[in-house]
């Protein structure tokens, strides 16, 4: 791929994504919208993974965002867009406070603790009935944009663009070097004077902010939040599998993976309504064993090899 | 840095002591404030189940150095096997325990040979994601085949109860306590007394050194993995006798097992018994407080955070 193509490809893809609603019927539009939500989550998950910390807690921050948006709409009668931003702020604030403790954990400990987070948040929301509506959940009085399918799609697209923009910012700033150094060798990163904790905190709070925003958008689109629906483990599983298949440590990887797996899963959902998630588990296993760099990573490797050869 | 490393190797099993002290103090005060003798009994029984599930995970982590996030799911699969043995062949879970354990050991060996074996040299994160994928694949396959409906055997003997003074409680769950103690004792004997066990211990401490003195590291890994899956399979059979089973039933046990293993310190099997006791008692006491029953799931989260914090605090002091 030449340099010109590489520069224009994102523009073309974004333009195609923006005009997509004018060409597609209601069903493809609904599918695309749910793929976009998972895509944004996949990109946000990858952003934290670049620091070598694997989070199994996407659903947790997604759920906090969902409840943040629902509660601010109901109790503060915030407008939908404001409530989505407040949802991001809620998630970021929770991540910031928890960060002081859990960012001291590494690898397995971090992973398991984040896995537990989603469940913990769910327990809190479930049991704090007076404030959160308890197990029955919350129903919003009205949908954002009065439920207009195209506007909802663009809203989901906006979350993807925001995630990709932040991800690109991560890749172009010194954050990238700091996070990569932490991932490769924390001791040598520390001895090179990198303020590891601060960088991890930035990454953790940013990704949680994104996941909160996405949760907020989800709740505004569907107008409903319950502990079982928004803390569903699928919100961890799908983005994770998408990012892995597409290729981690990059922005295009998770996007590519989300398109492939999202469309495939929609097809499978029609064929096998229960248990189509087994495919995600199998894909995760196969990718780790056979294609650890993912599709985009494999492509980058090949480009690099060709460049070295020439 | 060096001092820290030597210290943690020299005293691998001591990390749980301060945590346990804190936990027991908290539990003590809670117990006094809401004195319920049954909470203590049920806490001990719950601890037995936790320990019985956690000990095989400790075996894999201590020797193969893999965090198996599919651990609880393997127990779930075994429980389903045992369920079908009961429904189709009329076998009592206590009878099908042995064949289920054997089948699960073979299944574990297959899982090891097909997946885990190829990720032994991969970065730790890849191993984690791999076993996470396995967990999803297992639970969703069961979901696909048997739906998410929960199933339960209704066996008469599980509702056996005893009365001490004016307190009466179920006694069946002491089976789990017995199983946990038997597992801990059996593994200690196996690792310290048998040739295979000693080899496994050596591989766990230093695979390269073990290879140099002529131990087949690959075979040992395969054997230990299969053994652990077989053991958790047996526990799954016992699990079925009392509990309802559904595809997602294993997940919490994976997390709690890991929490216990981390708390006890890798390689400390007896420590798991004490740590389970603390977790089980704490949970059952919170369950016993009226209006707060739903919060008991938070206990293990608090414990794992406390464990890690205490550990990092101790290391910094050195």
Description of the structure:
The complex is a heterodimer of chains A (310) and B (318). By secondary structure, chain A is mostly helical. Chain A has helices spanning 3-23, 26-49, 58-75, 80-102, 107-127, 129-132, 149-172, 174-184, 186-191, 196-222, 227-230, 234-246, 252-271, 278-290, 294-309, and strands at 138-139, 224-225. Chain A has one domain (3-309): ABC transporter involved in vitamin B12 uptake, BtuC (Orthogonal Bundle), CATH 1.10.3470. The longest helix of chain A is centred in the C-terminal third of the chain and has 27 residues, at 196-222. Chain A starts with a helix and ends with a helix. Chain B has one domain: ABC transporter involved in vitamin B12 uptake, BtuC (Orthogonal Bundle). In chain B, a hairpin with a 2-residue loop joins strand 1 and strand 2 (167-170). In chain B, helix 2 (16-33) packs across helix 13 (299-317) and helix 11 (251-264) crosses helix 12 (269-288). The N and C termini of chain B lie close together (9 Å). In chain B, 49% of the residues are buried. Chains A and B meet through helix 5, helix 12 and helix 14 of A and helix 6, helix 11 and helix 13 of B.
Summarize the structure.
Chain A has helices spanning 3-23, 26-49, 58-75, 80-102, 107-127, 129-132, 149-172, 174-184, 186-191, 196-222, 227-230, 234-246, 252-271, 278-290, 294-309, and strands at 138-139, 224-225. Chain A has one domain (3-309): ABC transporter involved in vitamin B12 uptake, BtuC. With 310 residues, chain A is mainly alpha-helical.
Descriptive labels:
heterodimer; A: 310 residues; mainly alpha; ABC transporter involved in vitamin B12 uptake, BtuC; two-stranded antiparallel ribbon; 15 helices; 2 strands; 79% helix; B: 318 residues; 13 helices; 73% helix; disordered N terminus
Helix content percent band of chain A: over 70%
CATH class of chain A equals Mainly Alpha
- Average pLDDT of chain B, rounded to a whole number, is 83
Using CB atoms under 8 Å apart, which protein chain pair has the greatest interface? A-B, 43 and 43 residues
Count of the domains of chain A? 1
Low-pLDDT runs of chain A:
none
Q: Say what the CATH topology of chain A is.
A: ABC transporter involved in vitamin B12 uptake, BtuC
Widest sheet, order of strands of chain A: 1-2
Number of helices of chain A: 15
């Amino acid at each position: 791929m030449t340099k010109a193509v590489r520069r224009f490809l994102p523009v073309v893809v974004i333009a195609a994504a923006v005009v997509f609603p004018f060409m597609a019927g209601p069903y493809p539009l609904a599918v695309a919208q749910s793929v976009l939500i998972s895509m944004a989550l996949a990109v946000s998950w990858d952003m934290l993974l670049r620091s070598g910390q694997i989070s199994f807690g996407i659903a947790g921050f997604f759920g906090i965002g969902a409840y943040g948006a629902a509660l601010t709409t109901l109790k503060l009668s915030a407008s939908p867009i404001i409530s989505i931003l407040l949802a991001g702020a809620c998630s970021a604030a929770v991540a910031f406070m928890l960060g002081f403790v859990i960012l001291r954990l590494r690898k397995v400990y971090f992973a398991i603790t984040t896995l537990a987070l989603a469940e913990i948040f769910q327990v809190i929301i479930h049991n704090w009935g007076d404030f959160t509506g308890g197990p029955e959940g919350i129903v919003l009085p009205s949908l954002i944009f009065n439920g207009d399918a195209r506007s909802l799609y663009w809203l989901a697209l906006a979350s993807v663009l925001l995630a990709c923009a932040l991800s690109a910012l991560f890749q172009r700033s010194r954050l990238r070097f700091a996070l990569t150094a932490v991932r490769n060798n924390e001791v040598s990163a520390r001895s090179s004077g990198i303020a590891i904790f601060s960088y991890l905190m930035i990454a953790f709070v940013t990704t949680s902010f994104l996941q909160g925003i996405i949760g907020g958008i989800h709740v505004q689109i569907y107008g409903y939040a319950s502990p079982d629906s928004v803390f569903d483990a699928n919100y961890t599983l799908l983005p994770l599998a998408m990012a892995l298949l597409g290729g981690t440590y990059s922005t295009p990887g998770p996007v590519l993976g989300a398109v492939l797996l999202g469309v495939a899963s929609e097809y499978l959902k029609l064929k096998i309504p229960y248990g189509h998630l087994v495919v995600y588990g199998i894909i995760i296993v196969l990718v780790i064993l056979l294609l650890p760099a993912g599709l985009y990573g494999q492509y980058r490797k090949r480009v690099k090899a060709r460049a070295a050869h020439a | 840095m060096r001092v820290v490393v030597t210290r943690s190797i020299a005293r691998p099993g001591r990390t749980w002591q301060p945590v346990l002290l804190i936990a027991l103090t908290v539990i003590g005060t809670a117990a006094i404030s809401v004195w319920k003798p049954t909470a203590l009994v049920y806490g001990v029984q719950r601890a037995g189940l936790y320990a019985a599930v956690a000990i095989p995970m400790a075996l894999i982590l201590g020797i193969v150095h893999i965090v198996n996030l599919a651990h609880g799911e393997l127990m779930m699969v075994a429980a389903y096997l045992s369920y079908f043995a009961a429904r189709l062949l009329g076998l009592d879970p206590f009878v099908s325990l042995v064949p289920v354990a054997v089948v699960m050991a073979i299944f574990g060996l297959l899982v090891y040979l097909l997946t885990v074996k190829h990720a032994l040299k991969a970065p730790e994160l890849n191993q984690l994601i791999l076993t996470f994928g396995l967990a999803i694949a297992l639970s969703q396959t069961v979901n696909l085949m048997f739906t998410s409906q929960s199933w339960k055997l209704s066996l008469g003997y599980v509702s056996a109860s005893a009365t001490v003074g004016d307190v009466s409680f179920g006694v069946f769950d002491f089976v789990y306590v017995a199983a946990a103690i038997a597992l801990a004792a059996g593994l200690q004997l196996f690792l310290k007394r048998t040739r295979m066990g000693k080899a496994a211990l050596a591989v766990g401490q230093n695979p390269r050194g073990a290879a140099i003195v002529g131990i087949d590291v690959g075979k040992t890994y395969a054997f230990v993995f299969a053994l652990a899956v077989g053991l958790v399979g047996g526990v799954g059979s016992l699990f079925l006798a009392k509990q309802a089973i559904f595809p997602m039933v294993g997940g919490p046990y994976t997390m709690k097992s890991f929490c216990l293993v981390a708390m006890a310190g890798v390689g400390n099997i007896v420590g798991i018994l004490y740590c389970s006791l603390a977790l089980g008692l704490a949970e059952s006491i919170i369950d016993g407080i009226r209006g707060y029953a739903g919060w008991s799931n938070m206990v293990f989260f608090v414990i794992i955070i406390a464990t890690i914090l205490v550990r990092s605090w101790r290391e910094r002091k050195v």
